[in-house]
Design goal:
- The chain is α/β, with parallel strands linked by helices and 222 residues long.
- Helices cover 43% and strands 9% of the residues.
- It has 8 helices and 5 strands.
- A 5-stranded parallel beta sheet has the order 2-1-3-4-5, with helices on both faces.
- Helix 6 links the parallel strand 4 and strand 5.
- The termini are far apart.
- The N terminus is likely disordered.
């Protein structure tokens, strides 16, 4: 999720191209939450999602992930541009913004760049809006890392960011999954936090997937 100061060794972009023409393709865009900082590759929520969908009868290839710990909206935009993606995907997700909040960037910058990123995600889905979805920003203020960093202020600002992203998604007709309440349960359940004391554990990511998988499967099987 956050700061290169805390985590000097950043997790790099990870790619897994579709391995079968019978499987649907999936592109996941984001930051440390999408790349799965401090969890095993199999515990990343996009990986768990494709596995769950495949287990339930909707074959989805391992995801292509464009994400890195610490990325803000503008840094994700730059990374996407550098990839020069020309293909389209059957499913595209977007989860970004926590590092804008952490660094104290102007919220207007987030609003503008998030909307641009969502428009780009729709392009990557071949214009099929029902194949794109947004995941809300979790509240890291409940983690051990953030206890000395004004958790109440973090929660308020995360809610502001999520309200904006939800409004943008709704305006464009894109599905929005609010996993923030799940993240806040971590205040009472340490098993939902990774060993770094900051990021979600694989167990929390499983709860995210449980929330969204059925609805995504329905969209993919229309």
């Amino acid at each position: 999720m956050l700061m290169s100061i805390l985590l000097p060794i950043l997790m790099m972009m990870s790619y897994a191209e579709p391995t079968s023409t019978d499987s649907l393709s999936y592109l996941a865009l984001g930051d440390s939450y999408t790349i799965g900082e401090s969890v095993a590759e199999s515990d990343r929520w996009p990986v768990q999602l494709t596995q769950t969908l495949s287990d339930q009868g909707t074959a989805v290839a391992p995801p292509r992930i464009i994400a890195r710990t610490g990325w803000t909206t503008d840094e994700l935009q730059a990374a996407i541009a550098a990839e020069n993606i020309t293909q389209t995907y059957d499913l595209v997700s977007l989860l970004i913004g926590v590092n804008n909040q952490y660094r104290g960037y102007p919220i207007d910058q987030f609003t503008k760049e998030f909307e641009e990123l969502l428009d780009q995600a729709i392009v990557f889905a071949g214009g099929q809006i029902d194949r794109v979805f947004v995941v809300s920003i979790p509240d890291y203020g409940v983690t051990p890392f953030a206890q000395s960093k004004n958790p109440a202020k973090i929660a308020t600002e995360i809610d502001q960011y999520n309200q904006l992203s939800a409004e943008i998604a709704e305006r464009k007709g894109v599905a929005y999954y609010d996993i923030t309440p799940i993240s806040r349960v971590a205040a009472e359940d340490a098993s939902l936090i990774a060993t770094d004391g900051l990021h979600p554990s694989g167990q929390m990511y499983s709860q995210w997937v449980e929330l969204i998988a059925a609805q995504i499967a329905a969209k993919l099987n229309k």
